[in-house]
Amino acid sequence: MLMPEDYIINRRRHELNGALDWKNTYKKLTRSEKNTFINLISNNKVVKEDIKKVSSNKMKRLLSHYIEFNKSIIY
Length: 75
Fold this sequence. Notes:
mainly alpha, 75 residues
């Protein structure tokens, strides 16, 4: 259950709106990147500073899905 919660709950709505990109990008991560990624999302609160901390563009792309999801809840 690493995918953003809204992508899982509203699977049909996000099929073409982020979930596929998330899945494809996640598959491209190295084992080390996956471990780092899991640590970053484990507190269930991804912030922009987390994206700035990583050097991998793949991880930046994945983490951005969590930022967009959080923004949609706040607004």
